[in-house]
Specification:
There is one protein chain. This protein is of the alpha/beta class. It has one domain (5-10, 30-212): Collagenase (Catalytic Domain) (3-Layer(aba) Sandwich), CATH 3.40.390.10. It has helices at residues 62-73, 150-166, 193-203, and strands spanning 5-9, 33-35, 38-40, 51-55, 83-86, 94-97, 107-113, 116-124, 130-141, 210-212. The strands form two sheets. Strands 1, 4, 5, 6, 7, 8, 9 and 10 form an eight-stranded mixed beta sheet that branches. Strands 2-3 form a two-stranded antiparallel sheet. Helix 1 packs across helix 2. The longest helix is centred in the C-terminal third of the chain and has 17 residues, at 150-166. Bound molecules: zinc ion (ZN).
């Protein structure tokens, strides 16, 4: 039995879990985030590929992260997203930890479940239309790190959170369905056709945020 994950926003004050699902959204769902009068959208520029991801060598999430990277890379035909694991966290574009977040800063995309919880955080840069790297992904046990089903929870949640770090930043998960890994309450153990369509659409669209490398 897989854990039920509920994903919600924790910083942006809009009504969570009250999505309006447009009819017949076969082609995909919303990936942009509306913040005040700003429309935020993000994708990895080809010049930043492969995206450098750090995770501890002994992290219980490591194998699930490798699966998640492969799932998202395979959603593309022309290699629009590629990632590699790096050993130095200070050089990483995305940092993945099997622990709760310690900082309250940034824009958060959170998920919680009976066995594990997840949160992805990004920060806007000091210059307009910028996103300051790194992204931070946290996925950690709700209580018992050996709970039945926690490996499924980790695999689904890491795939979901990495989807946020690829640029699916709509905090309401608007339009995502239960069959999509990016559903706010994800149970799908892998990408749906709609997940693939959405990320393809994002990577072939103009975006508003430019990543600022780490100092
Ligand atoms: Zn989410």
């Amino acid at each position: 039995m897989k854990g039920r994950l509920a994903c919600l926003i924790s910083l942006v004050a809009v009504t969570a879990c009250a999505d309006i699902v447009p009819p017949a959204q076969r082609e995909g769902y919303e990936y942009r985030q509306i913040l005040g009068t700003d429309t935020l959208s993000f994708k990895w520029d080809p010049s930043l590929l492969p995206v450098k991801i750090w995770i501890a060598d002994d992290s219980p999430l490591r194998s699930h992260l490798i699966t998640a990277i492969s799932r998202w890379e395979q959603a593309f035909v022309y290699g629009e997203f590629r990632a590699t694991l790096v050993s130095d966290s200070s050089r990483a574009d995305i940092i993945v930890r099997n622990a709760p977040p310690t900082s309250g800063a940034g824009l958060r995309l959170a998920a919680f479940a009976s066995q594990c919880l997840g949160e992805t955080t990004y920060q806007l840069g000091s210059a307009p239309k910028t996103l300051q790297l790194p992204w931070r992904v946290h996925v950690w046990p709700a209580s018992n790190p050996n709970a039945t089903g926690i490996q499924d929870c980790y695999r689904i949640t890491v795939t979901h959170e990495l989807g946020h770090a690829l640029g699916i930043i709509n905090a309401n998960h608007a339009g995502a369905l239960p069959t999509d890994v990016m559903y706010r309450d994800p149970v799908a153990d892998g990408l749906s056709e709609r997940d693939r369509n959405t990320i393809e659409r994002l990577y072939h669209s103009r975006t508003t945020l430019t990543a600022v490398p780490r100092p």
